[in-house]
Write a structure and sequence with these properties.
The chain is of the alpha+beta class and 262 residues long. The chain is built from nine helices and eight strands. Helix 1 runs antiparallel to helix 2 and helix 4 packs across helix 5.
Length: 262
């Protein structure tokens, strides 16, 4: 193995943000819900319905449904549905989730896998934890084959420093000039190199990270919407709500409610 290549295997880690086996009734519903993480639903009993764009899917036992990050979906249940669900995220170097940008859901028939995962879900034994993570990685891998063309690239020192500065000073008031001034380079130079390295503009990167931070704070539920708005430097809660709704399709309050409905 070439020197340094082994470091590639430490670049990406799957964060399991939530996991649970639940029984949902007719209260389980949401419209045009978009999340910065990927949702995995493994149905064990009952029936649910999932839709996006012009596509409708009946969710039945024995199937695993993968909803990519960023895809706006609606879902509901008429009577009941039992499912093991996971919220997972694999962030790329540019701040996007690995599956972000894929415009379709995936359905895999995995009766035995679902049975095994559900059985092991609450176990604290290492073998069970490894089994579950391996299965989830396998599902994600099947989703990106033929749909994602991404390689691991090394960023320039300037881009790496810019990302660190953005993460340490994330705010709605942060602009490219602030980052450029802090790194003692021109805004034009920073824009050019950052976009070349990451494939997106530095302004879009800042916005993506800001909204990801907002979503995390809303999902954690420790702060009020106003406190989150203040923490992220928005002029007022109402502007923050409009800004958030433009990204995720629903207000922060409704998003928090939908998150809690799995």
């Amino acid at each position: 193995m070439e020197s340094g290549k082994s470091n590639l295997y430490s670049e990406f880690n799957m964060d399991i943000l939530a996991s649970r086996h639940v029984e949902c009734g007719d209260w389980w519903r949401a419209e045009n819900l978009s999340s910065p993480f990927t949702r995995i639903y493994m149905v064990t009993d009952g029936v649910g319905y999932l839709s996006y764009g012009k596509t409708s899917i009946e969710m039945t036992a024995g199937n695993a449904y993968i909803i990519p990050a960023g895809l706006a979906v609606s879902y509901y249940c008429e009577k009941k549905i039992l499912k093991t669900y996971f919220h997972v995220s694999i962030l790329l170097q540019n701040g996007y989730d690995l599956l972000d940008g894929i415009d379709k859901c995936f359905v895999f028939r995995e009766e035995n896998m679902i049975l095994q995962i559900t059985k092991r879900l609450n176990s604290n034994e290492i073998k069970d934890i490894i089994y579950i993570k391996t299965a989830l990685y396998s599902l994600i891998c099947r989703c990106i084959e033929g749909n994602v063309n991404y390689t691991v690239d090394s960023y320039s020192k300037l881009t790496s420093k810019a990302i660190k500065y953005i993460e340490a000073n994330l705010s709605s008031t942060l602009v490219t000039k602030d980052v450029a001034d802090a790194l003692c380079v021109s805004s034009e130079q920073l824009r050019k190199i950052f976009c070349k390295d990451t494939g997106i503009s530095i302004g879009k990167y800042i916005n993506n990270r800001l909204m990801s931070k907002a979503e995390l704070e809303i999902r954690l539920g420790k702060l009020s919407i106003k406190e989150i708005s203040d923490k992220l430097g928005f002029c007022d809660q109402f502007y923050f709500s409009r800004y958030f709704s433009k990204k995720y399709g629903v207000s922060p309050m409704k998003y928090r409610k939908n998150i809690n409905s799995f």
